[in-house]
Write a structure and sequence with these properties.
The protein is α/β, with parallel strands linked by helices. It has 22 helices and 15 strands.
């Protein structure tokens, strides 16, 4: 019996260690089981191989337990060896280059402990159900122990099960933090809370608005893409200062009700809707559900608040028209809006335009690239006007807006090569805008892209259209991930793009190596989107 118990203890410890990549995928999917399942299906080799290898390693202790069940002391060094193999696998997985590193947070530590307990419970359950220790012959012991021997093959399943089992505990902890953040905001009735949401553009508008408002107000904005309830909660609990006058809360959503939950935390008095489009359709399924979820922000505003809309001549404009609360409309080239931009001149050096209201206009310049960024600036300007800033004050602030990281960020590369970094979370509207920016640059134009994701059943169609537009804007296309980018290739070829100018690579590293060998002085390279590791085809 001792040998069987040692085998299970060491095996389950090794199983948890061998599951590092699976825990990383779970973390990348924001600890959401549906997303984790999709990742496992998308990367079956990477998900199942460590468990299969570990099951093979179990052959030696299996033979010991079945042939010499009374020599439990022999299992001691074998048990140590199994744990060491798990540590070795953990280390090898940690050495893999990751775009977003696995962070062993307090939540991950709790998850690892839960996974070990789940594996241990299942292991002893199998032991007492099949009772190999009570079998009389070697063959009977071998047959009865097979379920235990193949247990490691199920690592993707047991990791997901551990995630499910840990959810009640995590929900309780999150509720405590959430209520503490609500308490902090209740103690700050003077704080102007602004919610910003949209299918795309919300992070850019947030950072632009922070720069503009900082001319007059002490402003705190959620960093990077902290746009989930727990992300915003952390910012409130750790970063909000008594001197802050304005709090900008970016609000992301992947499911119906996500924005409403964030509003229950922040209680914004002002709401900014940047866009509504086909983003996260893998979870929303329909554009109507995306629209309704984004509009949760406007519905949550108090009657004396104000809603700000970007005039897209589409869904945003429809939502503006139906809103009965105080509202403002920001536009490009539409004098009927409350704030608009006209006389736009876009170049590789930035943009010049006139910022206008019905009573005033001011000339502005920004280093941000693309007409869509002017839309973002005008939308942010409308909020500033509402809060009492003058148009000239806003115009001066626009010149201080710097490039936003990984969002059409202009950089110089060695050898006289220009790089446009638009690696963050591409979408149909943003990818078209990025290609239009690329087209404005002189010389040879190259694009490196893995395409777009999270677009549901229409993902291939969107990527095909992306390729069609790419054919008019790029001279060389480097497609990262042959399988996922095949619709882009189809779109390129349908527009007569030279197939010799299409290069398919397996990873971003391979694309970078190709560029080092083939870029020339005067080239412009657009990096459009960079998928996280859970979307890798390696």
């Amino acid at each position: 019996m001792m040998s069987w118990c040692l085998w299970i203890l060491s095996m389950m410890t090794g199983c948890v260690l061998c599951s590092r990549t699976l825990f990383h995928d779970y973390q990348l999917e924001s600890y959401q089981i549906p997303g984790y399942i999709r990742t496992v299906r998308r990367n079956p080799v990477r998900a199942w191989t460590p468990g299969i290898f570990y099951a093979v390693v179990q052959v030696v202790p299996l033979v010991i337990c079945t042939c010499w069940p009374d020599k439990g002391w022999v299992m001691i060094p074998l048990a140590v060896a199994l744990v060491l193999y798990g540590l070795y696998t953990y280390r090898k997985q940690a050495e893999r280059k990751a775009k977003k590193k696995f962070v062993v947070t307090a939540r991950v530590k709790r998850l690892l402990g839960c996974a070990w307990l789940v594996d241990l419970l299942l292991g002893f359950l199998l032991l007492f159900v099949f009772r190999p220790y009570g079998a009389q012959t070697t063959m009977q012991r071998f047959v009865c122990s097979l379920p235990l021997a193949v247990f490691p093959v199920l690592l993707p399943v047991t990791t997901g099960l551990a995630g499910v089992c840990s959810m009640p505990m995590e929900k309780g902890i999150q509720t405590l933090y959430f209520r503490d953040a609500q308490r902090i905001l209740r103690q700050r009735p003077d704080l102007i809370c602004i919610g910003i949401t949209g299918s795309y553009g919300k992070t850019s508008v947030k950072f632009i608005l922070r720069t503009l408002l900082s001319e007059r107000f002490q402003t705190l904005a959620t960093p990077s893409s902290f746009n989930t309830p727990m992300g915003v909660t952390k910012v409130i609990r750790t970063s909000l200062r008594p001197s802050d006058q304005v709090f900008l809360a970016e609000m992301g959503a992947r499911h119906v009700g996500d924005i409403r939950e964030l509003c229950r935390l922040v209680h914004p008095s002002l709401g900014v809707l940047t866009s509504v489009g086909p983003q996260h359709l893998d979870t929303f399924r329909t554009i109507e559900r995306v629209r309704d979820t984004k509009y949760e922000l406007i519905e949550s505003l108090p009657d004396n608040g104000c809603a700000f809309f970007s005039d897209d001549a589409g869904i945003c404009r429809e939502l503006y028209d139906k809103t009965e609360k105080p509202k403002m409309l920001a536009a490009v080239g539409n004098p009927g809006a409350d704030v608009w931009a006209e006389d736009i001149q876009v170049s590789a050096q930035g943009s010049d335009f006139m910022l206008c209201t019905k009573n005033e206009r001011v000339a502005c310049h920004t280093v941000l690239l693309g007409e869509h960024n002017i839309r973002n600036i005008v939308l942010a300007a409308s909020v500033c006007l509402y809060l009492g800033m003058s148009l000239r004050e806003i115009g001066r602030s626009i010149g201080k807006v710097t490039g936003i990281e990984h969002r059409l960020q202009l950089r110089s590369m060695p050898g006289g090569v220009t790089m446009i970094d638009d690696a963050f979370n591409s979408n149909p509207s943003g990818s078209r805008a990025a290609l239009d920016v690329l087209r404005a640059f002189p010389g040879r134009r190259l694009i490196v892209t893995p395409g777009m994701v999270e677009l549901g059943d229409d993902e291939d169609a969107f990527n095909r259209t992306f390729g069609e537009h790419m054919a008019d804007c790029a001279d060389l296309a480097i497609l990262v991930g042959p399988k996922h980018t095949s619709p882009i290739r189809e779109g390129l070829l349908s527009k007569g793009f030279d197939p010799q100018k299409i290069v398919s690579v397996k990873s971003l590293d391979e694309a970078t190596q190709y560029l080092k060998m083939h870029v020339q002085k005067g080239d412009t390279v657009l990096f459009e989107n960079d998928l996280p590791d859970n979307y890798s085809e390696n």
